[in-house]
């Protein structure tokens, strides 16, 4: 069964024209059972493997940024030069495996109570999402 009508609506609601290339991006991101964590380069490589159509990096960046702004994707900054995106937009935690360069979901019940003792004037906590960096122990 084709979900193209869902992808077309998702694109239009994000302010994007539903081109053949953008529909392929949607299919790769959202036509799956499990959460998908990716960088822009990961996504570009995956698209090259599944389609003969050329999809420019500009199209990928614009589509991902529009989806992020609309709330369809979550951005997770690992450091100043590494950003991942997540198709699971709920508040949740992650492991980041520094050896494999991959994000792994952590459920709330995998993490004990987190208490923040500092507050900033005029600000309130919107969410708490923990990023735990892991590496091989040897």
Description:
With 138 residues, the protein is α+β, with helices and mostly antiparallel strands. It has two domains: 4-83, Arc Repressor Mutant, subunit A (Orthogonal Bundle), CATH 1.10.10; 90-134, no CATH class. The protein contains four helices and six strands; from the N terminus they run ααβααβββββ. The strands form two sheets. The protein has a three-stranded antiparallel sheet with strand order 1-3-2. Strands 5-4-6 form a three-stranded mixed sheet, with no helix packed on it. Strand 2 and strand 3 (82-86) form a beta hairpin. Helix 1 crosses helix 2 (20-30). The radius of gyration is 17 Å and the shape is globular. The N and C termini lie far apart (47 Å). The relative contact order is 0.13. The mean pLDDT is 92.
Strand fraction:
15-25%
At CATH level 3, the topology of the largest domain is Arc Repressor Mutant, subunit A
Strand order of the largest sheet: 1-3-2
User: Which residues sit in consecutive blocks of at least 5 with pLDDT less than 50?
Assistant: none
Summarize this structure as a short list of keywords or feature phrases:
138 residues; 2 domains; single chain; alpha+beta; Arc Repressor Mutant, subunit A
In short:
The chain is α+β, with helices and mostly antiparallel strands and 138 residues long.
